[in-house]
Task: inverse folding
């Protein structure tokens, strides 16, 4: 070996080897900075002396870092063996375990010639060889693999241990194998072949849950983010872990309504309620719109409050696209679900010392935490505070109308038949009076919210115009005998304006004229007119003659 003269590399190769060798030498020098915290135990440290978690190094990288200096600065003739001996005498950090390790002369020599003989990728030449049976798992014969795949298709929600236990029975009793594969073997095979355990989505026999599981198995799941502020809002109810004391002396777990902007993660509104009803949902959502702006789209789950007629029709009138998550697929509204961790992890723990927690106190604390901490603190996913990103835009929000307009929008619209006798309609068991100027309309459209029948409006469906409010029937007031004058349905005209002449109607006059133009005589036999007395006497004579003959 002493007579081996190192081949002089070309200028380009020498430059490449020099750069790579110096780079990896620097990595090795930094990685071998070791201090002893306990006897026999070594801890990797950062440049400032603080302990850090050491990441395992790839074998090819480590090997090249050992022989790289020999390639970057080849030793003189006859000095190669001494250089390799010097490397073999050093203590190195094991690339996998991190323990001190030494490598023999022949090992380092083999690394050196492997890297030297490769001109394109000297690091790749030092990569460990892949086993020829890698991934084959001979303990899993083909029949057993087929049984495991069939078992997984039938029971995708089973745990790996349950699959392994059932497969052991199949292997020993049915396939007559001498030894069944171990649990680690079955687990590695299932993970390597994508036979991952699926969590059950909803009730076992629910059609919606079954469709959700099939969809989750066939389609990928990806994160998303809107391009514009106000392009998409998320909203949902969350049951708090703390109970509040109500005025009637009950302890109730409140429901938190949250509205988040998708792009900025800004919390538009938070408010606690005693129940997740449609009335409370519209109440909180209207405040979110008035605080920020009207969004282009809103995403929620399929709860009864979100799918109520007042909610869906109101969002449609405001020009907000309402998207609901698919059944048993909460990951579609993942930003909202992740936000609840902030509530349970930061907000509610700060109220643990409050024994008599009321709804008003909880809402006051939540509002302060939302505006002064969450919206202003740095968000780990977007790298800045939600408020800064919200203000930076770009945004596509629209101005929100006033409170009274929002009340008219968030209503259900129904058709009713007006009763002709007294001009009323029935709505949720209550009779409402229709103004007499609309007494000629048989089928009317009304707009109302089920939780507030004090505000009901009569609307014109084709133009979506609110005509007037209508009120419940007051029978006691009507018993006083006061009645309004009927409002005219047609405009009043002067007496001499387009007065209709008395006589034959125009249509009959035209028919008589058309018949006269045919030239035909009247299609009847005329009879001379006689007085009533003469006709009466004639009738009596006729009756007497009939009696005589009888």
Result:
């Amino acid at each position: 070996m002493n007579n081996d003269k190192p081949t002089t590399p070309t200028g380009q190769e020498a430059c490449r080897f020099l750069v790579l060798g110096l780079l990896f030498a620097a990595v090795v020098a930094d990685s071998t900075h070791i201090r002893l915290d306990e006897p026999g135990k070594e801890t990797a440290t950062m440049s400032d002396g603080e302990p850090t978690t050491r990441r395992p190094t790839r074998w090819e990288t480590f090997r090249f870092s050992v022989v790289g200096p020999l390639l970057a600065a080849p030793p003189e003739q006859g000095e190669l063996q001494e250089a390799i001996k010097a490397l073999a005498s050093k203590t190195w950090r094991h690339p996998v375990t991190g323990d001190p390790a030494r490598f023999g002369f022949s090992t380092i020599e083999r690394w050196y010639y492997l890297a030297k003989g490769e001109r394109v990728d000297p690091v790749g030449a030092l990569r460990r060889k892949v086993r020829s049976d890698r991934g084959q798992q001979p303990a899993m014969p083909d029949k057993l693999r087929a049984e495991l795949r069939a078992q997984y298709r039938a029971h995708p929600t089973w745990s790996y241990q349950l699959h392994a236990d059932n497969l052991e029975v199949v292997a020993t009793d049915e396939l007559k194998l001498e030894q069944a594969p171990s649990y680690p073997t079955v687990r590695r095979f299932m993970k390597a072949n994508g036979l991952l355990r699926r969590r059950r989505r909803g009730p076992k026999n629910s059609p919606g849950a079954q469709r959700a599981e099939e969809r989750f198995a066939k389609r990928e799941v990806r994160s998303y983010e809107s391009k514009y502020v106000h392009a998409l809002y998320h909203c949902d109810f969350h049951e708090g872990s703390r109970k509040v004391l109500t005025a009637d002396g009950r302890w109730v777990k409140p429901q938190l309504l949250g509205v988040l902007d998708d792009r900025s993660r800004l919390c538009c509104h938070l408010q606690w309620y005693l129940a997740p009803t449609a009335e409370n949902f519209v109440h909180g959502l209207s405040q979110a719109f008035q605080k920020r702006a009207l969004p282009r789209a809103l995403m929620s789950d399929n709860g009864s409050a979100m799918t109520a007629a007042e909610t869906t029709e109101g969002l449609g009138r405001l020009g907000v696209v309402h998207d609901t998550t698919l059944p048993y697929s909460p990951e579609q509204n993942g930003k909202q679900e992740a936000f609840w961790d902030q509530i349970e992890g930061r907000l509610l723990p700060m109220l643990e010392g409050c024994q008599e927690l009321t709804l008003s106190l909880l809402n006051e604390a939540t509002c302060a935490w939302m505006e002064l901490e969450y919206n202003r603190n740095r968000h780990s996913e977007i790298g800045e505070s939600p408020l800064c990103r919200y203000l930076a835009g770009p945004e596509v929000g629209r101005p929100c109308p006033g409170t009274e307009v929002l009340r008219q929008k968030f209503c259900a619209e129904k058709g009713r038949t007006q009763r002709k006798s007294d001009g009323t309609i029935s709505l949720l068991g209550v009779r409402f009076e229709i103004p007499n100027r609309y007494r000629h309309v048989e089928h009317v459209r009304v707009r109302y919210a089920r939780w507030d029948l004090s505000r009901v409006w009569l609307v014109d469906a084709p133009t979506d115009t609110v005509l007037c409010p209508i009120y419940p029937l007051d029978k006691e007031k009507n018993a006083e005998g006061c009645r309004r004058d009927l409002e005219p349905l047609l405009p009043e005209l002067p007496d001499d304006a387009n007065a209709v002449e008395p006589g034959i109607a125009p249509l009959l006059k035209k028919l008589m004229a058309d018949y006269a133009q045919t030239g035909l005589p009247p299609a009847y036999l005329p009879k001379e007119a006689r007085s009533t007395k003469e006709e009466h006497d004639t009738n009596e004579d006729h009756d007497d003659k009939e009696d005589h003959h009888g």
Q: What stands out?
A: Residues 170 and 176 are 8 Å apart (CA to CA). The domain at 233-392 is CATH 3.30.420.10 (Nucleotidyltransferase; domain 5).
